[in-house]
Amino acid sequence: MDLRIEDKKALISGADSGIGWHTARLLLNEGVTVVITDQNQQQLNDAAERLEAKPGQLHAFAADITSVESLAQLHASVKAAVGAIDILVQSAGITGAQGLFHEISDEGWTNTILVDLIGPIRLVREFLPDLRTGGWGRLVMVASEDAVQPYDDELPYCAAKAGVLAFAKGLSQTYASEGLLVNAVSPAFIHTPMTDAMMQKRADQLGVSVTEAIESFLDDERPNIELHRRGDPDEVANVIGFLCSERASFVNGSNYRVDAGSVASI
Ligand code: NAI
Q: Best label site of 5, 106, 139, 176, fewest CB within 10 Å?
């Protein structure tokens, strides 16, 4: 499907791997001019190379989304490279502090909330003026199934992602009349470096192979993933791409689950 956004410019965070990287690839294929950002410039350059974009179609600038100063620098670089962006995809995030509530330190809480909630808010605040320029904008926030179905061994992450959903929904009320549509996407158990690390840790703890760790995780921890497998990052990028597009012109304030049924409620 032609998404009708070939003249648009997009910024994607958390884009040196996983869902962000696959979203960059999808938008590049749609003819969008793309800026990818993540923490490490070298890894970002490698990621950009793997995207095999046309000359001038892709730019890569490192930034830390938790830092106001770093985001201001990123904005200056983006402006110089492509001008104002029309599309922002916020995909940066971490699993954060894990364990039961009594096992998580104050630092574990504050760091997870900083990266998974405050950082995304700072990123949006920095680029909001761009998105409001020109009467057409798309903002997609990557949340998680954990936002509406919390798991008691990762409460800081759940709380941060619930905050992301509330933030996105509230924001969608303010700017839609100007043409800026705001939506969220909530994946579950996608095959990215984030869940690779989780499954390696689980395999080490249980003394089993990573494949066995994935199987037991699906059986015991995610029984409602009816397809009984990890999702592919492209399967999330497809939905993000749609929400970034002209095809989603009447979609605002929504939360699209890409979780194969993992969230048990309707
Ligand atoms: P990933 O680990 O491949 O990508 C996340 C990226 O965020 C990394 O490249 C990392 O360097 C970057 N990042 C972390 N802290 C940052 C900071 N302070 N500043 C800038 N960049 C930073 O993982 P994945 O799976 O692609 O995650 C993307 C988003 O999807 C995250 O927000 C995650 O919470 C969410 N998600 C992922 C799920 C999964 O199963 N993989 C399930 C539900 C949500």
A: 106
- Residue spans per domain, the chain: 9-188+235-258
- CA 146 vs CA 165, 177, 188, 210: distances in Å: 11, 30, 8, 22
Helix, strand or coil, per DSSP, at residue 256 = strand
User: Confidence band (pLDDT; 50, 70, 90) for 203?
Assistant: very high
Nearest CA to ligand 1 atom 6: 14
Amino acid at residue number 28: L
* 135-183 tens-digit pLDDT: 999 999 999 999 999 999 999 999 999 999 999 999 999 999 999 999 9
Centroid of chain to Cα 32: 18
Taking the C-alpha atoms of residue 38 and residue 115, their distance in angstroms, rounded to an integer, is 12
Q: 9-188+235-258 falls under which CATH superfamily?
A: NAD(P)-binding Rossmann-like Domain (3.40.50.720)
